[in-house]
Amino acid sequence: MRLILTALLFLFGLFNLLLGIGFLVDPTGLGATFKLIPDGPGGLAVLRADLTAFFLVAGGCQLWGGWRRNGDLLLVPALLMGIAFTGRAVSAMLDGTAEGFAMPMAVEAVQVILAIAAWRVLPHHRIGEIAG
């Protein structure tokens, strides 16, 4: 079970890292696939900074938590993806949905479930033990 969870953490971690790098390198192109259109340099900076940070932190914590077998690191991507899922759910209730709306929610939900499941299975370490 732990091996399967770790392998899935690595896959989603790499997926998120690639998304983060994609937003850093090509915010306009990748933003379009997320239905985001930057408005000038400020909009490009938001895509490049905020979405890069979101996905690199989520992916980095998934990879690091799986590699170090530290369940506590997995709370970060669980919270990030859980908040993103909640935001989409609120938007669906208030604004409605469009074609392709469900897929990102499914990916976020799977990542929340995976992170919490791995958090329950993997050991927990104190903060000082993470770096060492």
List keywords for this structure.
132 residues, 6 helices, globular
Number of domains: 1
Number of strands: 0
Gyration radius, rounded: 16 Å
Q: Shape, please?
A: globular
Figure out the total of helices.
6
Provide the low-confidence segments as ranges: none
Q: Supply the helix-strand structural class.
A: mainly alpha
Largest beta sheet, briefly? none
Write a structural description.
Helix 1 crosses helix 2 and helix 1 runs antiparallel to helix 3. The two termini are 26 Å apart. The protein has one domain (2-131). The longest helix is centred in the middle third of the chain and has 28 residues, at 40-67. The protein is globular and about 45 Å long. It is 80% helix and 0% strand. The chain is an all-alpha fold and 132 residues long. The chain has helices at 2-25, 27-33, 40-67, 75-95, 102-121, 127-131. The protein contains six helices and no strands. The model has no long low-confidence stretch (mean pLDDT 92).
How are the SSEs ordered, and which strands pair?
Elements (H helix, E strand, L loop, with lengths): L1 H24 L1 H7 L6 H28 L7 H21 L6 H20 L5 H5 L1
Helix pairs in contact: 1-2, 1-3, 1-5, 3-4, 4-5
Would you kindly provide a brief summary of this structure?
The protein has 132 residues and is an all-alpha fold.
